[in-house]
């Protein structure tokens, strides 16, 4: 008997022992009873990658169903350039069709509204149920609106936007900038870490300033940071701001927002004086996507999900794996698209091993790079490699493995464009 036949037999034996046969006729979706099935919730950076790599690493032997409400993937990375008028929505939108055509991932465009871990099913907003042997949840982030008084109402009326999930709001913020007269003030308010994409707000301020410098040179860009200092690539950002924008950009640390007034576009702080702006971009305090809160698995401060870093299984719910921004991160691990893509690959390998009855890799590694534009062509990066340490059961950054750019450069600008195209191809084709 060859190795593959043996593996398949072991898989089948395991599935029967585990009661993992299909439930045809019980009102659940699914395919052949002989295949293990993984359901993935969320078609962002983490969810698309894990879907593809489970299919690839299992030689197509494991069924994967990806559930995502949006019809096409829209990327947060590069979306700051859309806000600044340097790219279009088309440039950051990629269809999901490649996952189906090339890897036979079943894609269901719907929202998951509930998970039943006892019956191992997920319920969809459309009313049907999907059964799983293993569930991967990659819902990204949601917002803790109540942390800033008045923000939800100001947001819902369109007065104060966050644009921290790429989509319609990305263009709405762009339109606010276009409508602002020359001489106006744009302000961005940044929450205390942890939040999605540590350098993202500083990149946004930089590229908005680049737009203002060209189109509205008497205007001002205020950065109101809830943190004591810039949370990523601080020295590089500060140098770029001084060299490229001079007094147009003003950075104010220790500005923790506590309330807003949408009508007057005013933000109030815990300690500092109020600030009024013509365009006010307030990033709300963030937590894991609503679904995992509702599932009761946000066991890190009620905000993020603790996972077993060998396979990203929730420490609160068996056979449910959480990846991407929704997890409680390990030391030095950013909430980034690149990192979600890395989580996904470790998880895919672990799930395929578990479902095939093979040992799980005891020494996984993760990589990350975050590239930030400081104008339309110059970029700075931060990179790191993370290794699992069994004695401490967590990931740690390998000393000297990464670092930051020596200086901004247009060569890195070309690398950043290539990074985006490569990671989208890795996730979606
Ligand atoms: C302005 C900006 C710039 C950024 N720049 C970079 C960068 O340069 N490099 C980088 O690496 N990262 C960057 N990031 C961070 C990156 O976007 C996130 O870290 C990444 O998207 C996290 O991936 P994820 O899979 O956890 O979540 P997401 O990519 O947000 O995907 C979550 C998906 O889950 C779906 N979903 C949620 N709930 C449900 C449900 N109940 N049922 C079904 N589907 C559901 C959502 O529709 C969404 O498609 C940036 C972020 C922002 C905002």
Tags for this model:
429 residues; alpha/beta; five-stranded parallel sheet; four-stranded mixed sheet; 26 strands; 25% strand; globular; binds flavin-adenine dinucleotide
Describe this structure in words.
With 429 residues, this protein is an alpha/beta fold. It contains 11 helices and 26 strands. The longest helix has 19 residues, at 337-355. The protein starts with a helix and ends with a helix. Bound molecules: flavin-adenine dinucleotide (FAD).
Helix and strand topology:
Layout: H1 3-17, E1 28-29, E2 37-41, H2 45-57, E3 63-67, E4 72-74, H3 79-83, E5 93-95, H4 97-103, E6 106-108, E7 112-116, E8 121-124, E9 129-131, E10 134-137, E11 141-143, H5 151-156, H6 168-179, E12 185-190, H7 200-215, E13 220-225, H8 234-245, E14 249-252, E15 257-261, E16 266-269, E17 275-276, E18 279-282, E19 286-288, H9 290-295, E20 307-308, E21 313-314, E22 320-322, H10 337-355, E23 365-373, E24 379-389, E25 394-397, E26 403-404, H11 410-428
Parallel strand pairs: 1-9, 2-3, 2-10, 3-6, 10-22, 12-13, 12-18, 13-14
Antiparallel strand pairs: 4-5, 7-8, 8-9, 11-19, 15-16, 16-17, 20-21, 23-24, 24-25, 24-26
Helix pairs in contact: 2-10, 2-11, 7-8
The structure holds flavin-adenine dinucleotide.
The gross shape turns out to be globular
Which percent range fits the helix content? Answer: 25-40%
Strands ordered across the widest β-sheet:
6-3-2-10-22
- What's the number of helices? 11
Total strands: the figure is: 26
């Amino acid at each position: 008997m060859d190795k593959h036949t043996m593996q398949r037999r072991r898989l089948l034996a395991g599935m029967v022992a585990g009661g993992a046969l299909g439930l045809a006729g019980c009102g659940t979706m699914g395919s052949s009873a002989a295949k293990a099935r993984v359901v993935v919730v969320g078609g962002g950076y983490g969810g698309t990658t894990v879907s593809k790599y489970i299919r690839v690493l299992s030689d197509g032997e494991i069924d994967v169903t990806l559930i995502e409400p949006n019809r096409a993937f829209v990327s947060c990375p590069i979306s700051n350039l859309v806000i600044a008028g340097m790219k279009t929505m088309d440039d950051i939108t990629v269809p999901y069709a490649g996952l189906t055509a090339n890897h036979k991932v079943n894609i269901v465009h719907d929202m998951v509204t509930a998970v039943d871990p006892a019956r191992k099913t997920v319920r969809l907003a459309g009313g049907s149920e999907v059964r799983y042997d293993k569930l991967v949840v990659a819902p990204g982030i949601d917002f803790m609106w109540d942390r800033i008084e008045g923000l939800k109402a100001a947001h819902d009326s369109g007065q104060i936007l966050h644009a921290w999930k790429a989509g319609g709001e990305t263009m709405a913020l762009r339109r606010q900038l276009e409508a602002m007269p020359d001489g106006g003030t744009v302000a961005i308010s940044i929450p205390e870490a942890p939040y999605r994409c540590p350098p993202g707000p500083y990149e946004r301020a930089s590229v908005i300033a680049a737009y203002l410098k060209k189109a509205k040179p008497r205007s001002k860009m205020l950065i109101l940071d809830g943190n004591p200092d810039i949370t990523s690539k601080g020295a590089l950002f500060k140098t770029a701001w001084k060299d490229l924008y001079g007094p147009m950009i003003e950075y104010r640390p220790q500005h923790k927002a506590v309330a807003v007034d949408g009508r007057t576009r005013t933000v109030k702080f815990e300690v500092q004086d109020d600030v009024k702006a013509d365009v006010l971009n307030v990033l709300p305090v963030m937590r894991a996507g609503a679904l995992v809160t509702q599932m009761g698995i946000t066991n890190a401060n009620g905000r993020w999900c603790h996972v077993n870093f060998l396979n990203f299984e929730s420490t609160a719910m068996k056979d449910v794996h959480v990846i991407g921004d929704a997890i409680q991160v390990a030391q030095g691990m950013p909430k980034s698209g690149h990192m979600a893509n890395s989580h996904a690959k470790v998880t895919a390998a672990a799930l395929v091993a578990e479902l095939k009855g093979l040992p799980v890799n005891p020494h996984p590694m993760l990589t990350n790079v975050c590239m930030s534009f400081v104008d339309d062509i110059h970029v700075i990066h931060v990179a790191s490699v993370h290794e699992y340490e069994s004695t401490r059961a967590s990931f740690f950054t390998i000393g000297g493995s990464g670092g930051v750019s020596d200086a901004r450069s247009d060569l890195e600008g070309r690398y950043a464009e290539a990074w985006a195209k490569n990671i989208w191809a890795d996730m979606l084709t």
